[in-house]
Structure prediction request, 588 residues.
Amino acid sequence: MTAEDLAELATGAGGPRVIGLLRDGQVGKQLLLFVEITRMASAPGDALASQVRAWFAVLADADRRDPHTARQVLAAPNVGVWAAQCLAGLRSGRSAAQSAVPYLGAVAAAVAVRTGMAARIAVPVIDGRVALPTLGALSVPPGAAAAFLDSTAGEWLLAVDGVAVPLRRTPDGTLAAPGGGAPDGFTWHPASRLRATSAGHVLDVLLDDLDPFRDRHGLGAVGPLDRSQALRWQAMLDAGWSTLTGVAPGYAPAIAAGLTCVVPLRGEPDGHGTSATAEHGFGGLSIGPAGADAFAVGLLHEFQHSKLNGLLHLVDLFDDDGQRHYSPWRDDPRPLAGLLHGAYAFLAVADYRRLQAAGGGPRAGAVPVALAGFEFARCRESVRRTVRALRRSGRLRPAGLRFTAGMLDRLAGWEAPRLPADLRRRAHDMVTEHRVLWRLRNVRPDGTSVASLAADWTARRPAAVPRVAVTTVVGDRAALPGRSGRLRLLHQRLAGAAEPADVAPGDLAYVRGDRSGAAARYLTAIEDSPGDLTAWAGWLVTRPARGPVAPELLWAVHRRVLDSGGRPAPPEELARWLSTVEVPAPRW
Prediction:
C-alpha cells in the first residue's frame, strides 16, 4: 500500500487495482487466522485436535494445488466473520466446540469441492443445516448430528447419519441435487447468485441466505429464500445498481471489483431499510429491502466501510484513546474508529447526493433535487466537522493525517450545487439538532454542581459555580425516538409528500418556515412536559437568542429546580443566567 494508493482511497474512491490490494491483504489475514485457529484448537487433549489437523491439511493441500480457486472460499466474507469470532472464542478460553471450530470442516469441504479434490471430510450440522460456504446448504431432520462429504472426480456424496445425498456441480459453480433431489426429510438449497448490469458495469454477487455466520450484527438475516423471494432481491439489486451507476458511475468499478456477497435482511416497519458491514467480512454487506435510491446508497455506504476495514488491517491510521466520542450518525458515543468509519462512508454518500442534486445522470431523478441538495449539505457539514475533530484529537498517525487531509481536500474540491439559503440553514439546523440531542442523552453534568446551581437560581442569586465537569455516558436507547421527527418531516416536505396528521405543533411550524412560532410552541411543549428532550432540542435550534448554552447543564438544572419545588425556570432566562458557567465541551 503506497502513499499514492492511500491518497486514492482518501478521496472516497479507489479503483479496481487498489481494491485488489485490499482483497489480497484480506486473503493473507484469513490464512493467518486459519493457521492460528488450527494451532490453538490442536492442543494436546482437545477432543477435536486430530480432526482440526485433518481439516487444515485439506485447506493447505488445496491452496498449494489451486490457490486462486481455494481462496474463493477462504476469502469469502462470512468465512472471515466466522474465523475472527472463532479465534476470539479460543483466546477467551472457550473450548474448540464452544468456539465453533468444527465449521472449519465446512470450509475444508467447500474448498475440496471447488478445487476438485478427492477426500472424505467431516462437516458439522449447525442449526439444522449442513452448510458448505459459497456452495449451498442441506437442511436435515431434527436430531441429525454427524455428516461427511465424500468427494471424487466431479461427484460428491453428503452423508448425514447414514443417509447419502448425491450432489453435482452446476454450470454457475454451485452444487445441485440431481434427479429426484434429496431423500425425504432432507432439502438441498443451492447457493444463489445475483447479477446486475448497468451502463457497462457488471455486479455479480453471492446472495447468502444460508451461512450460519451471516448475521454478525443480529439484524435478522433471512433464508433460505424461495425462488420468488430470490427474484425479488434480484429486482432490488437491478434497480439499486442502475440508480448507483446512473448517479455516481465513478464508484461502480470499485464496487464491482470488491463486493462479492450480499446477505438479505428482513424488512423494517419504517421502510427505510437497514444495512451493515462486518469488520472481518471484506467484500460483504447485509441489507434489507429498500427502494432503488436507498438500495443504491446502501451499496455505496457499506462498501466504503468494507474498504476502510481492509485498509485498517494493512495500515495503522490512528492510536485508539480508549474513549467514546460524538458521532453525527449515531445516538451513542463511539470510539475513534467509529468516527473515521462514519466520516469515510458519508464522504461517498455526500458525493452521491451532490451529483444527484446536480442532475448527475439519466437515472438521477428518483429523488427530488431539493431533497438531494439538502442531504448533501447535511452530510458535507457532518463529515467536515468529524474529520476536523479527528485531526484535533492528537491520535492520528502520519498515515492517518495524510488520509484525513485527503478527505478534506476532496470536500473542498467539490463544486457544490447551488442551494437556497433557507435549505442550507435547515441542513445546518439538523446537524445542530443531532448534536444537541446527543448531548442531552449522553452527557451528564456533575450532580453536586447541578444541585448548587439549582439552589442559587431558586434563591435568585448569581451562579456560584464557575465550572461544571461533565461525563460522557451511554444514554438510554429507549429515551429517544429512532429518527428525528423534524428531519423526517423535512424529508417528506422536500419529497413533495403530504403532511401527516399527527405532527407536533412546533415541528409543523418549523417545517413551514415559521421559526419564531416553532420556538414558542417548543417552549409550550417544555412547560407541559419538561422531560421531552425533542422539544428541548427543537427550542435550542430555533430560539432567537444565540448565546452559548450547554444543553445538558440547562436541562439538568431546570429539572433539578422543578424536582426541588423551586419556581419554574423559563428556559431562556435560565440559559442567560447559566452563561457565566464554564462547561467543557464533550470531545468530538
